Amino acid sequence: MSKKIAVYPGTFDPITNGHLDIIYRASEIFEKVIVAVAESQKKKPMFSLEKRVEMVKEVSNKYQNVEVISFNSLLVECCREIGAKIIVRGLRAVSDFEYELQIGYANASLDSSIDTIYLMPSLKSAFISSTVVRDILKHKGDVMHLIPKEIKNHVYNI
Asked: Which of 9, 23, 49, 103 falls between 20 and 30 A from 67, CA-CA?
């Protein structure tokens, strides 16, 4: 197993420019980045798992070293299956930090050989979240400045 493989997990419901920024940054650091789309029924996603995977694939196919998978298990189990030793998480604000720290420690308690690193998105993407995008979509607002242009048809044809 190589420390050169990183997993970037999330529900990506939908993928945003902030997510894409983290994917790009991780792809510059690691030999291989696996974007792991979580089924996450607990969150009651707006988009199906298949649709979320499709959207992530469409926007990340420009990066040679990025692969997209789906998973429905503990994240550390997913990491073990694919041979990843690094989990990449994005931090937008201080409010993200406490939650991410708890998740990072929980994952470390399950498998101490897997590390979590945190990347900050660029300033222009720092306020973007899938929750904000979904809320705007529910009210028929324009989200094109928040999402990759490649997924416009998916997002507006729900």
From this structure: 103
The residues pairing with 38 across neighbouring beta strands, listed in sequence order, are: 71
Domain 2-156 has CATH 3.40.50.620: yes
As to burial, measured by CB atoms within 10 angstroms (0-12 exposed, 13-18 middle, 19+ buried), residue 92 is middle
Is 44 marked active-site? no
Question: What pLDDT score was predicted for residue 146?
Answer: 94
Strands 84-90 and 32-38: unpaired
Catalytic site residue 130? yes
Q: Taking the domains of the chain in order of start, what are their residue ranges?
A: 2-156
92-124 pLDDT, tens per residue?
877 788 889 999 999 999 999 999 999 988 888
Contacts of 22 (CB under 8 A, 6+ apart): 8, 88, 90, 119, 121
The strand order across the sheet containing 32-38 reads: 66-71, 32-38, 2-10, 84-90, 115-119
**pLDDT attached to residue 15:** 97
Q: Is 73 a catalytic residue?
A: no
In the set 43, 62, 124, 138, the catalytic residue is: 43
Length of the chain: 158
